[in-house]
Amino acid sequence: MAQYEINHINNNSVPIALTKLDNILNWATSNSLWAMTYGLACCAIEMMASGASRYDFDRFGTIFRASPRQSDVMIVAGTVTKKHAEFVRRLYDQMPEPKWVISMGSCANTGGMFNTYATVQGVDRIIPVDIYLPGCAPRPETLQYAVMVLRQKIRSKKAINEPIKKRLI
Ligand code: SF4
Fold this sequence. Notes:
The chain is an alpha/beta fold. Helices cover 31% and strands 12% of the residues. Strands 2-1-3-4-5 form a five-stranded parallel sheet. α1 packs antiparallel against α5 and α2 (43-51) packs across α5. The radius of gyration is 20 Å and the shape is elongated. 29% of the residues are buried.
């Protein structure tokens, strides 16, 4: 037995770890972020690569889901057209609370190079965004970093909050 190890049986004691309920709930939530796939254009290829064997999102506890009802975080990857905006909002509304949004790539952030009548100039005009991921297209490593930043953000908040009014429209 290593010298630094405490023998609780001989010492007639029990190991105790004290923490706050907030920390446990946030730790559990942040380590099991299920992502709703929302691939809309070329950025979606990089998002798919994040889930494949080379980058392996599963090891972070982030698993892609095809249903909004099973998802915690929506990753909007690509150009959002005005015709499609209604469906982005509807799927966001179907996700259970608490929920988060990552805007992936310049097109989702600001409309990118498509400053046209048909393109939404930033997905934050439709749904509230927690993390903006710059680039055209951002690489899978940066999406993984965005998820890690989101995890830090979740851990720094209170686990049980008053419901936040997130409706923008
Ligand atoms: S940001 Fe670039 S890579 Fe991503 S959807 Fe727009 S044009 Fe495609």
